[in-house]
Amino acid sequence: MKSMKSIVIVCLLLSMRTYAQAPLLNGLESFEQWDVAEEGQLPEYWDGFNRTVEFGGMAVGSVVCVHKDSLDPQEGNYSARIVSTSVAGGAPVSGLLTAGNLMVDFTNQTGDVIGGLAYNQTPTTFTGWYKYQPVGVDTASITVWFLSGGAQIAGNDLFISGTTTDWTFFSIDLAYPPGITPDTVNVLFSSSDDVNNVSEGSTLEIDAIQFIQGNAGIETLGMAQLEVYPNPAKEYLIVKVDENSRGEVSIYSANGKICLTQNIMGPVTSISLTSLPSGNYTVVFRDELGSISTQALVK
């Protein structure tokens, strides 16, 4: 597990942003709050490797690694496309998008991802959707970590390798030491995980990310509602949705692979789980209107 991503070396600082209305803290973040009045503008509440390149106090160009993409969003109108890009015609840097602050010093070739968003919840899962097109043997990463009083108390990583041209669901499990509550959360998406061996052009696309609270209950996104029980489950699972909802439910493993898919034609559906080994899963319901609901599941 990594606590912070260094571009070249680590400089430990603390900078916490307070954004009560940040979508990531209040539900689904699908990068809809994004005004691209000019090239290189980042989505609201996020920082990334979109910078004016300066050496010795003189601007020599710019690098733009994070792009607003409306061609094929997974949810809403936009997704975030993160690309490993060369700096001023030189060596490439990893595309980075973070809920914290990205500190870059081009002259000294140093940088760090610090701080995060004020947050005192303890979600059990971080989920979302990705597509990845690496160059060569490149690997992308998604990192989540929690701080309390400036010290990291929890976190987890997901590493992505191989080409994935279709939207793929991911789920990252989270756990905390007893009796400690976080005060800050940070999320980092990286198109090239090894910052010392970056392949120019590697592209990670991210959309529809969120924190899931608890292993049972109801999670509502948009107009869709999803309830699953029993949870933990053994041989079967009952899926309950809105009275008039129709759509498809999929069960994903902890590494984001689809294990089961079933059409939902009524408010209550029974699904056999006998083919699934014990473990942690995520149930995803997408209704006919495209609204998505997710629920963590234990078998």
Structural class: mainly beta
Strand content: over 45%
The helix fraction, in percent, is under 10%
- Output the CATH homologous superfamily of the largest domain: BT2081, beta-jelly-roll domain
Overall geometry comes to globular
**Overall average pLDDT:** 82
Order of helices and strands: EHEEEEEEEEEEEEEEEEEEEEEEEEE
**How would a crystallographer describe the biggest sheet?**
7 strands, mixed
The Rg value, from CA coordinates, equals 20 Å
Give the count of helical stretches. Answer: 1
- Distance between the first and last residues' Cα: 25 Å
Q: Show unreliable segments.
A: 1-20, 215-223
CATH architecture of the largest domain: Sandwich
Reading off the top of the CATH hierarchy, the class of the largest domain is best stated as: Mainly Beta
Tally of separate domains? 2
How is the CATH topology of the largest domain named? Jelly Rolls
Number of strands: 26
